[in-house]
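On clarity, I found the account of how folds are encoded harder to follow than it need be. What matters is that the chain and its backbone geometry are given together, residue for residue. I therefore recommend that a typical entry be quoted early in the introduction. An entry of this sort, consisting of the sequence and the corresponding backbone structure tokens, reads as follows:
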Amino acid sequence: KVYIHLAMVWGVMGMALKPVLGLAQHVAPKYQGPAPTVLPVPLPPVLDTPFPDLDRAIAELDAHAWVLKSTSEKANLMRACSTGLVNVSKQVSDLSERYKGSWGNKEEWLPMFCVVMGCQEYVTALESGGAPAPLKLRKETATDQWVAEVFPHGMLKALLPGYKGEVWMKPGTDPTQGAAYCAPEEGEVRDEGHIALVLGAGNQYAVVLLDIFHKLICDMEVVVCKISPINHYLGPLFEEALSPLIEANALRIVYGGREVGEYLVKHPKVHSIHLTGSADTCNAIVWGSPTVPRVGVPPIVAMGKSITAELGNVTPYIIVPGPWTDAEIKHVAAEVVGGFTHNAGHNCLALEVLITAADWPLREQFLAEVHQQLNERAQRVPYYPGSAAKHAAFRERFKAGPGKMLELGVPPVAKSGTDSSGVLPFILVEGLEPDEVEVKTENWCAVAQEVALPGTGSDPAAFMTAALEYANNKCWGSLAVAVFCDPTTQRAADTEWKQLISGLRYGSVCINVGTTMGFVVTALPWGAAPGNSLHEVESGVGSVHNTYLFDHASKGVLEAPWRPVPKPLHHADNNAVPHLMPSLLSFVNNASNPLFALWPMTQVALHAVRG
């Protein structure tokens, strides 16, 4: 109760400061930028961990000792790792930029915010015995779902006024928490513990670290993590930052490609597997091949192993028509551009399909603003293996129609790095009919399609119904979706609006903010909507994050203010990020202690208004 009351105090402070920050944003001198582009250099070779060393690493993991550790002992280890990650964050960012490219706004530093925030949230969960109190609880009677408000919490409310993150439980279940931390029943023998294999993602280091933490805390399993060959250069820094877990024999980090992965998957001491990747990779692990018939008991299950996976999405952004101002059009366009360009489109949550209303009077103006902002951004090198070929295939698919294909962005003026011949434009195909959109293939590069739904006129309620059907039944996957709708339109079509949000069959629903933030807010679950199986895995099975440890989480719903103040840090043109990151990480690493967090929080605000 004390925690909740303090959160209310910070929330009131945030709302009171919002107009002050808004005024400051208009009058404060802006940081110059972006910094010069740095193109990526070739990856260094991967040195595979030898099989005997893999066996030794697994043998050193002490699953039983991890189970027996008290929640306070685990919390102390996580707290130490949080500080370790802050200490190496700048090195992680610099190395990532070297091999992925730097586009002027420290895009590779910002993900450490959500890693440290998630780490601290797990500390709170552990100190609460596995059941931290949500900010609010309510019941959606129409769908028989409990909904827990969990974000922003504590001092974050002062920095993020107007944001709201909710965990929606599976229909018919109770909002119970921390099943793994419940006291054993009388006569019950506590589990001896298990070893989990995390097959680290190659595109985002935050995914790797948060997957490790999820297995350790939510599933209470020790972890052997194979770093991807695509970002293996970060492994030594991870080992340094997470040394408390390594010294506790709760974590081992190993290296290698497919052969090492196959050896670990089949290792007799590995009990569970979690991967972030493609459906083909998952099916190869589960069935032995991505092309064999998926019938009967999966071989991986027959081996006594369980598997969870996050596998991507043809991500839709739904633009609900409304009477937007020029400033509102500019803001939503910035969210679209960020979903388009971030990480060169090598994200499972990257914008793929922009759903608009064909008869929206502001549609052309909105698209023109998207064009303008994309043309202010430097084109990128698709560093991820195979992505240049996917970009070429997409271009070939649409160069002669249907729709209007636009190649956007400006060639970068590189400060250093490789030959700029590898740079590719952002591609947007506009004006597609619903049956002309390629909605079954995740492109994994900076390309997108716009489908203009006909037949809804200027009626937002009719469009919401049509967009719900299209997103649920046409777009492949169920990982994440973004919806943009002004408050006036929400109120005018209240019934259809509520049906849209509750009816979207996605693991993450982001309102008035891009899907990236659905991942960033670690209090929410991250993964495909429930219902997939190893026979039809689609966007994956299971979920991660969920730092409040809800036992029956179904999806996360994150709502941002229609006009956030100050400018969001994830916007591609925010030049404040390099200046405020040290303060932001110091703040979130100490957010549970106002005496230590207040000054860095103030510094964050002072920098943010200059973005």
Notes: The mean pLDDT is 94. The chain is about 40% helix and 15% strand.
